[in-house]
Write a structure and sequence with these properties.
262 residues, alpha/beta, Rossmann fold, two-stranded antiparallel sheet, 11 helices, globular
Length: 262
């Protein structure tokens, strides 16, 4: 059974504690949203599982959102549908209720990946989309130089891309999603060329991995990065990233269509 925190959060992250300002830093990035729009095809009804504050929900289709955290549901903007309080592992819908389903930046927090993906496949007649990060690629970002403990936590939490593919049928399309320089969705790699931004406490709080490492890791990160930005060491090593239009990091979109599933 999924663990439920006081605000209803399911899985390992307690968004009643860390999710208060999430929507201020985690806005839908149009470049990433376009990958999702294309993958949804002509599906008219879409289920968004682990919907959070509503990032990447298409506004030109009929969307049903599922989100167990009361804190996250409260941050959904008024133009999006009210989210249903439920967890991925027990979706309250009949078989093939939706033409497509999606899950973005959420599968690493589920208590039972196989059960959640099986439920998505059960209630969906068309494509199932999972936006996630490849744990094998997380060390490519400069963040690993300053907070290897946090990156290690992320690598342990994110399921292997192969595991997601196998659970959804084993014959999935995996798309690498380049991250734009001005990415408004503030996951860790979004700051690849804007290191000053991740010094903001809210930026780190909006990335759940920081809540799984000791406070001293964050304090050391801020001190070391601040020093290296001031003395020019960061720019000497990574300054070219400030003008690189895209970063090929760990972000992946997995798409399984009904013909691919077993």
């Amino acid at each position: 059974m999924s663990e439920r925190h006081q605000d209803g959060s399911a899985g390992d992250a307690n968004y009643g504690v860390i999710g208060g300002g999430y929507a201020s830093y985690r806005q839908p990035e149009p470049h990433i949203a376009e990958f999702i729009r294309r993958a949804l095809g002509d599906a008219r009804t879409v289920l968004n599982v682990g919907a959070g504050a509503g990032s990447y929900e298409p506004v030109d289709r009929t969307v049903t959102a599922v989100e167990p955290s009361a804190s996250m549901r409260a941050q959904r903007p008024a133009h999006l549908p009210v989210a249903i309080d439920a967890v991925a592992e027990r979706l309250p819908f009949a078989n093939k209720s939706f033409e497509a389903s999606m899950a973005s930046f959420t599968v690493h927090q589920w208590s039972n990946l196989a059960a959640g993906l099986a439920e998505m496949r059960r209630v969906t007649s068309g494509p199932v989309l999972v936006l996630t990060c490849d744990p094998n690629e997380l060390t490519r970002c400069w963040l690993n130089d300053y907070a290897p403990e946090m990156i290690a936590v992320e690598a342990r939490r994110y399921p292997a891309i192969s595991a997601i593919c196998e659970q959804l049928g084993g014959d999935a399309e995996v798309l690498a999603v380049p991250i734009p320089l001005g990415c408004v969705d503030g996951f860790g790699e979004a700051y690849y060329g804007r290191p000053e931004r991740i010094l903001e406490p809210g930026a780190r709080l909006a990335n759940s991995a920081w809540s799984f490492v000791d406070q001293s890791v964050g304090e050391r990160f801020v001190a070391d990065l601040s020093r290296d930005l001031a003395n020019g060491n960061w720019d000497a090593r990574h300054g070219g990233l400030r003008t690189r239009p895209f970063f090929e990091g760990s972000l992946r979109l997995i798409v399984v269509r009904p013909g691919d599933a077993a």
